[in-house]
């Protein structure tokens, strides 16, 4: 479907509907893929007995059924689990922490990340939640460094996936564009991405 004819309202609506349909198909496909990180987060969730149903659900539109609240990022059990996750990524960069691994690689495309938490963090206390995540990230890296930005992003994704087990890392990245839509595909080896259909 082409979107070149913007002369009529009907053409614009058809174009918007086509874009939404393609996005829905992409999300459906991404949901079939698993990274080792998805399994690691599930393992940490179970090991720390963090039941997602204990966190509040929102009636807001998707993509996330549960948003990151201030209570979540201040919960000592959740913070402990987040620290375990980041430490695991740093110890196993090639398998789990490939965003950290990418920082040391010579890539054709400049590696960069962006913290886009607006869709995933509660609106009323957004700044406070981000402040807690930033403070936690500073335990591993200096502020304004690439490692700090990667750690912030990985913490954001961890909190999202911890409380929303129905979604996976690649889908979260597609929705939030934290790696600008390409870094995980550049870095992830074929053996790391597994499909539920295989």
What would you say about this model in short?
Helices cover 52% and strands 2% of the residues. The protein is an all-alpha fold.
Describe the structure.
The protein has helices at 9-30, 36-47, 70-74, 76-91, 98-102, 126-137, 146-163, 169-176, 183-187; strands at residues 33-34, 194-195. It has 198 residues and is mostly helical. Strands 1-2 form a two-stranded antiparallel ribbon. The two termini are 31 Å apart. The model has no long low-confidence stretch (mean pLDDT 82).
Poorly predicted runs of 5 or more residues: none
Write the H/E string, N to C: HEHHHHHHHHE
N-C termini distance: 31 Å
Number of DSSP strand runs: 2
Tell me, rounded to a whole number, the average pLDDT.
82
Structural class: mainly alpha
Largest sheet: 2 strands, antiparallel
What is the fold's blueprint, element by element?
Layout: H1 9-30, E1 33-34, H2 36-47, H3 70-74, H4 76-91, H5 98-102, H6 126-137, H7 146-163, H8 169-176, H9 183-187, E2 194-195
Antiparallel strand pairs: 1-2
Helix pairs in contact: 4-7, 6-7
Index terms:
198 residues, mainly alpha, two-stranded antiparallel ribbon
């Amino acid at each position: 479907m082409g979107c070149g004819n913007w002369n009529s309202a009907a053409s614009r609506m058809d174009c918007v509907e086509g874009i939404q349909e393609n996005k829905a198909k992409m999300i459906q496909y991404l949901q079939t893929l698993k990274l080792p990180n998805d399994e690691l987060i599930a393992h940490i969730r179970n090991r720390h007995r963090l039941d997602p149903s204990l966190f509040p659900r929102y009636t807001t539109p998707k993509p996330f059924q549960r948003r990151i609240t201030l209570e979540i990022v201040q919960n000592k059990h959740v913070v402990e689990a987040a620290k375990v996750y980041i430490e695991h990524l740093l110890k196993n960069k090639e398998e789990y922490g490939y965003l950290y691994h990418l920082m040391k690689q010579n890539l054709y495309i400049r590696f960069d990340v962006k913290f886009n938490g607006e869709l995933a963090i509660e609106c009323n206390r957004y700044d406070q939640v981000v402040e807690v995540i930033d403070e936690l990230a500073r335990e591993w890296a200096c502020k304004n460094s690439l490692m700090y930005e990667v750690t912030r992003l990985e913490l954001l994704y961890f909190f999202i996936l911890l409380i929303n087990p129905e979604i996976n890392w690649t889908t979260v990245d597609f929705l939030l564009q934290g790696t600008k839509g390409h870094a995980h595909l550049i870095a992830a080896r074929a053996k790391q991405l597994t499909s539920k259909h295989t």
